[in-house]
Write a structure and sequence with these properties.
alpha/beta; 10 helices; binds iron/sulfur cluster; binds flavin mononucleotide; about 240 residues
C-alpha cells in the first residue's frame, strides 16, 4: 500500500492502520515523527497529500482538509497538494509493461495535459489553504499542476490561492525556469507542452527525458533557449500526438 492509500477513505484495513482518521493517519505520523527526530527542528520537512483522490469512494477536499489540519497540528513545515493517481480506476498494463496507478482518469488528473485548463488543480490547494487558515494554522500550502508560466504563478500567489508554487514538468523541460522568471526573461523560458512523454517513460522505469530537448539529450541543455527546442514537425512525429 502507498501512503496515499493509507490516508484514503478506500483504506479498508481493520487493524490500527485503517478505519478511523486517526488510524489512517498513523503510518504517516509515525514516519513524520522518526524523520523529524532524525533531522531535527531546523530542517524543513513537509508532506504531500492528495487534495482529492478523484475516484469513487476516495477522499475529497472535505477529507483532505481534515488530514491537513491534523498534519499542521503535528508540526509539519508545509503541505504540498496533489490529486488522483489511484489504482482503483487504473487500466491494466499492456503486455510486458509494469502496472501503473496513472492509467485512469485519476492518474491523468494528477498531471494535467495540454487540453486541460492551466492551473487545473489549484482549487484543491486553495480549498485547503483557506480552510486551515480559518482555524489558525499558517503553514505554507503548495499548489501544483499545469502552472506553465510565471504570470499564472504570480496570480495564484497574489490571489491567496496558495503560498508557494510547485513545478514538475516545467522545471524538467527548462531547469532555468525560475532563474529566467526572476530576471524578467519569461520569453526565454522553453515551455512545457504538457504532452506527458516524461511521465509515460518514467512510469515504464525508463530514462526520464523531455520531448522539447534536442534529440538524444538525457538532460536539458544549459543554457536552453526556445530556438533549440525540437521543431513542431519533429515533435508530432515522435509523440504521434497532433496536439504537440
Ligand atoms: C517524471 C515525473 C515524476 C513524478 N514523480 C512524482 C512523485 O514521485 N511523487 C509525487 O507526488 N509527484 C510526482 N510527480 C508529479 C509532480 O510532482 C506534479 O505534481 C505533477 O507533474 C503536476 O505538476 P506539473 O504540471 O508542474 O508537472 C512526478 C511528475 C513527473 C513529470
Ligand atoms: S516531455 Fe517535456 S514537454 Fe512533455 S510534458 Fe514532459 S516536461 Fe512537458
Amino acid at each position: 500500500m502507498t501512503l496515499s492509500q493509507f490516508l484514503s477513505l478506500l483504506n479498508k484495513r481493520t487493524d490500527e492502520y485503517g478505519g478511523s482518521l486517526e488510524n489512517s493517519l498513523r503510518i504517516v505520523m509515525e514516519i513524520y515523527e522518526v524523520t523529524r527526530k532524525a533531522l531535527g527542528k531546523g530542517f524543513v520537512l513537509g508532506v504531500r497529500i492528495n487534495g482529492d483522490d478523484l475516484v469513487m469512494g476516495g477522499n475529497t477536499l472535505l477529507h483532505s482538509t481534515e488530514i491537513s489540519m491534523r498534519l499542521a497540528a503535528a508540526g509539519i513545515d508545509y503541505l504540498s497538494i496533489s490529486c488522483g493517481g489511484q489504482w482503483e480506476d487504473a487500466l491494466p498494463p499492456k503486455l510486458g509493461e509494469p502496472p501503473s496507478a496513472y492509467r485512469g482518469y485519476s492518474g491523468l488528473r494528477c498531471w494535467p495535459r495540454a487540453w486541460d485548463p492551466d492551473g487545473a488543480n489549484v482549487y484543491l490547494a486553495e480549498g485547503i489553504c483557506k480552510a486551515i487558515c480559518k482555524v489558525g494554522y499558517s503553514i505554507p500550502v503548495i499548489a501544483a499542476g499545469k502552472i506553465p508560466m510565471p504570470g499564472l504563478a504570480e496570480e495564484i500567489l497574489q490571489e491567496g490561492k496558495a503560498d508557494l508554487i510547485g513545478l514538475g514538468r516545467p522545471l524538467l523541460c527548462d531547469p532555468d525556469w525560475v532563474k529566467k522568471a526572476m530576471e524578467g526573461r519569461e520569453k526565454e523560458i522553453v515551455r512545457c507542452i504538457y504532452c506527458n512523454h516524461c511521465a509515460e517513460v518514467n512510469d515504464l522505469f525508463q530514462t526520464t527525458t523531455c520531448i522539447q530537448w534536442p534529440q538524444g539529450y538525457i538532460n536539458a541543455p544549459l543554457p536552453f533557449f526556445p530556438k533549440q527546442k525540437r521543431s513542431e514537425k519533429k515533435l508530432s512525429k515522435v509523440s504521434g500526438n497532433p496536439t504537440c
